[in-house]
Design brief:
Blueprint (H helix, E strand, L loop, with lengths): L2 E5 L2 E5 L2 H14 L4 H16 L2 H10 L2 H12 L3 E2 H8 L4 H17 L8 E8 L2 E8 L1 H9 L10 E6 L6 E6 L3
Antiparallel strand pairs: 1-2, 3-5, 4-5, 6-7
Length: about 180
């Protein structure tokens, strides 16, 4: 006599009770996250905890005006190409853009933040032609969203920093944004 049971919306069938128990046990094991999935979830949790509103503000207040414009431009146009970014920032060349990115990286290091935690640069080669696309890190963007950056921010003056993880609100003074 066959035994049928439903597991996660699928009906499974086994010929004996022993087979049914063994099958169900195997199915349950297969839903346990793999080591890779577990590591990924842990890294995501760490990044979520890393990007606090204060740390976000430290970045925004700690970088230069041109570096700020770089982040804003990438924010407004994700996956922007380097040539278009050079034009949007009013730079003379991609070498100048590399200087802005290098300066951003140095400022971030002073804050114990790696450039990859803020800005990703995707490089692709097609024959001898190199293209670069820029995108903000998802966690950096998310904390920016929480703070209404940049849309809800005044150009200069004060900005209230809110932490949805707590009930804290702080007023920060903005420079030349």
């Amino acid at each position: 006599m066959a035994i049928e049971f439903k597991y996660k919306g699928t009906v499974w069938r086994a010929d004996t009770a022993k087979e049914a128990v063994a099958l169900r046990t195997e199915l349950e094991k297969s839903t346990v996250p793999s080591v890779v999935e577990h590591d990924l979830m842990e890294r995501m949790d760490r990044m979520y905890e890393f990007w606090t509103p204060d740390k976000f503000m430290d970045v925004i207040e700690g970088i230069g005006e041109l570096q700020n414009r770089l982040l804003l431009t990438v924010r407004q146009k994700p996956r922007i190409g380097s040539a278009e970014l050079v034009q949007a920032l009013g730079l003379g060349s991609e070498v100048a853009l590399a200087g802005v990115i290098s300066g951003l990286s140095k400022k971030l290091k002073q804050l114990s933040i790696d450039l990859k935690q803020v800005l990703a640069v995707e490089v692709k080669w097609s024959g001898r032609v190199k293209t670069r696309k820029f995108i903000l890190d998802d966690f950096f963007s998310a904390i920016g969203d929480e703070q209404g950056w940049p849309d809800d921010w005044p150009k200069k003056g004060k900005h209230v920093v809110e932490d949805s993880r707590t009930t804290q609100k702080k007023t920060r003074h903005l420079g030349g944004l």
